Amino acid sequence: MSDRRGASLAFAALAGVLAGAALVLGGMTQPARVIGFLDFTRGWDPTLAFLMGASVVVYGIASRVIMRRSRPWHDTKFHLPTRQDIDPQLLIGSALFGVGWGLGGFCPGPGIVSASAGATTGVVFFGAMVVGMVLQHVTARRTP
What we know:
- The protein is 70% helix and 0% strand.
- It is built from 6 helices and no strands.
- The radius of gyration is 18 Å and the shape is globular.
- The N and C termini lie far apart (39 Å).
């Protein structure tokens, strides 16, 4: 493995650990907190709104700084999405994501962190997420 590739993997691992720690500190690995944010009828918990707001600010600043570069540190070019259309697959996938998030109390990041900590609910969520991803991949390959 080249030194550059090793540095990239180490940086990615560090970023993952920091992101996971932020999710734990923000309480996002606790489904009750997420459900408390989504339930306006019983003691709404705004914690998630603050965490999302802070994330958007950090991302906004970081993306502007990064995109000023001619290329990323560890690749020859930036790989940005080019599609801008909204199709039924996007709408259905977004709806399923939202329903799963509301029912399970996890989105993928906190679910993975919770599963890696050994929490039963996180492991069940992670397993269901993987099954859903595999099913999507299989059905997408069959669709002409």
